[in-house]
Amino acid sequence: MVTFHSTRLERTTTANISCDDISADLQAFVDATGIRNGLLVAAGQHTTTALVVNEAEERLLGDIERHFLALTPPDRPYAHNDLHLRPGIPADEPRNAHAHLIALKLGNHLTLPVVDGRLGLGRYQAVLLVELDGPRQRQVLLQLCGDGSGVGG
Question: Is the CATH number 2.60.120.460 carried by domain 3-76+95-147?
Answer without folding.
Answer: yes
